[in-house]
Amino acid sequence: MPPADPILTVAQMRSAEQALVAQGVSVDALMQQAGRGAAEWVWRIAGKHRVTVLCGPGNNGGDGYVIAQVLQERGGDVRVVAPDAPKSEACRTARALFQSTVMQGGTDVSGAVLVDCLFGNGLTRCLSDHHGRLLNALAASHEKRIAVDLPSGVEADGGAILGDSIPAFDLTLALGAWKRAHFLMPATARMGALRLVPIGIAASSCVTALAKPVITPPGPDAHKYRRGLLAVVGGAMPGAALLACTAAQGAGAGYVKLLSDQSADVPLDLVRDARPLDHALDDNRIGALLIGPGLGRDDTARARLQAAVASKAKLVIDADALMLLTPNAIAHRMPGTTIATPHEGELAALETAFGLGAVGSKIDRALALARRSGMVVVAKGPDTVIASPDGVATCAPRASAWLSTAGTGDVLAGTIASRLACGDDPAVAAQRGVWLHGEAARLCPPAFTAGRLAAAIAQAFARCVQAGQG
Question: Concatenated DSSP letters for 21-78?
C-alpha cells in the first residue's frame, strides 16, 4: 500500500506542534503557515466575492485572522466577526496584523462564503447559546461554508457533535494532520469535502487514513491458481453469495468457486461445487474462503460455519456467520488470518460474544475487538474502520450514502475475500477491498443496486492496476 497519512488525537497533535516549536519554529510562524495554506483554498472558492471569517479567542481564531489578512492582501472582500477578544498570545498577534475593523456581532452579516474559525481541535464542551446562534445565523446567510480544522462544536477524538446541532459545511480544511473526527460519524457527515493543509508536521500514528492502492498486474507466467482461488460458501439465500462472487471476480482473483448445493442459476463463468462442504474444502489450492453472505442461522448454517473455521485457508466471515460466531470457534486459528466484516449491529453482537463493552469511539471499539479476537476487523458503515490485532487501524473516507441498500455488504465481503485469495496480507486485503468498494460506489449512478455495485468493482480495480502500470 502507498504511504498513508497519520490521523492524530488532540494530544498527539499538540505533541507534534511542540516538537516543531522545540526545533525553533515559533507558534506565530506555524499559525501563519496554517492560515495562509487555508487561505489558498478559501480564495479558490470565493475569489473576490464577499467572505466572512468567524474568529474565536484561541489559536483557531488566530488562523482566521491570518486567512482574512491574506484575502485582504489579494483584494478580496472580507469581513471578520469575533464575538470574543483574543486570549492566546498568537491569536493577539494575528489580530494585530489584520489592520481592519472587527465586528463583535454578525447575525445580520451575509456573503458568499463563511469561514468558521470559532473553535477547533481540542474543544470538549458544548458551544454556548450565544456562539451557537451566531454560527448558525451566519451559516444560513452565506451560500457556502468552510470549516477550518474542524467545524466548531465537534469533539476531535470521538467525532461527537457537542450540543444540539452544527451547520453543514461544504469543505473542511484539516490543519497539519487529519483528526479522528474527520473520519467518524456523526461529525464527518457535517464536514463536506475534506482537504489537508500541511504545516510541516512529521508525526506518526497507529491510526492512518486509507490511501488509494496500487495493484501490480499478473506476471507473464500467471495462471488462475497462481492469481488466487477463492471459495465462497453458499447457504439458505443463494443471491447474497452470488453477489459476493461477482464482486470477487472483478477484484483480481483468478478463480472464484461457489460451494453450494443450491440449484440456483449461476453465471457461465462461475464454478459451482455441489459436493458436501467438507469434501469441497479439502483442496489445498484454496487461497481464501468466504462465509456468511446468505448463510442463514439454522443448524445447517452452524455446521457450515464450523467446517469453514476448521479449514486451514485464510477466512473472511461476514453477515449471518458473524451472528453465529463464538470465541471458541476461532480460538485455534492463527491471529491475523481471519477477517470479520461487521456492520454496527453485528459489531455489537461480537462485542457481547467476546466479553467487550461498546466503549469509546468506533476506532477504539474496532481495535478492542481485533485485539481480543485475533481477527482483522472491518467495522463497516459510513465511517468504516479497519483494525488489526497488532493495534493498527485505518479509517476510510466517508462512504456514499447510496450504499445504504441491501446486498452492498455482500459485495464488500466478496471484494475483500478476492484480495485475500490473491495473496494480500489480511489487513492489506481489507484496506484494498474497502477502497475498491467505495470507489465502485462513486462510479455508480444514484440509487444503484447491489448488482450494479458488484459489476463496478472491476472498473474500480482497473484504476488501481493502471496506476501500478504507470
Answer: HHTT--HHHHHHHHHHHHHHHHHHHHTTS-EEEEE-SSHHHHHHHHHHHHHHHTT--E
Q: Does position 284 have pLDDT exceeding 80, yes or no?
A: yes
Instruction: Go through the domains of the chain in sequence order and give each one's CATH number.
Output: 25-205 (3.40.50.10260), 224-469 (3.40.1190.20)
The rounded Cα 107 to chain-centroid distance in angstroms is 35
Residue 468, judged by CB atoms within 10 A of its CB (0-12, 13-18, 19+), counts as exposed
Strand 286-291 to strand 171-175: parallel, antiparallel, or no bridges (unpaired)? Answer: unpaired
C-alpha to C-alpha distances, 218 to 224, 227, 252, 269, 430, nearest whole angstrom: 10, 7, 9, 19, 20
Rounded Cα distance between 319 and 321, Å, is: 6
The Cα–Cα gap between 266 and 243 comes to: 11
Quote the cell numbers at residue 221.
Answer: 507466467
What confidence category does residue 470 fall into, taking pLDDT thresholds of 50, 70 and 90? Answer: very low
pTM above 0.85, yes or no: yes
CA atoms within 13 A on the CB side of 275: 10
What is residue 268's predicted lDDT score, i.e. its pLDDT?
Answer: 85
> Residue type for 10, please?
V
Question: Which pLDDT band holds residue 1 (cuts at 50, 70, 90)?
Answer: low
CB within 8 A of 358, min separation 6: which ones?
348, 351, 365
Side chain identity at 36, as an amino acid letter? R
Of the chain, the percentage scoring pLDDT greater than 70 comes to 98
What is the distance between the alpha carbons of residues 234 and 260, in angstroms, rounded to a whole number? 5
How much is the CA Rg of the chain, to the nearest whole Å?
25
Summarised one tens digit per residue, pLDDT across range 329-363 is 999 999 999 999 999 999 999 999 999 999 999 99
The CA distances from residue 257 to 243, 285, 468, in Å, are 13, 12, 27
**Amino acid identity for residue 438 in this structure:** G
- Distances 379 to 23, 59, 348, 358, 470 between C-alpha atoms, Å: 39, 34, 10, 13, 32
pLDDT band of residue 4 (cuts 50, 70, 90) is confident
DSSP per residue over 284-296, as a string?
TTEEEEEE-TT--
Three cell numbers at 444? 455508480
Average pLDDT over every residue of 122-137: 92
Q: What distance in Å separates the CA atoms of residue 23 and residue 29, rounded to the nearest whole number?
A: 12
Cα(323)–Cα(336) distance, integer angstroms? 20
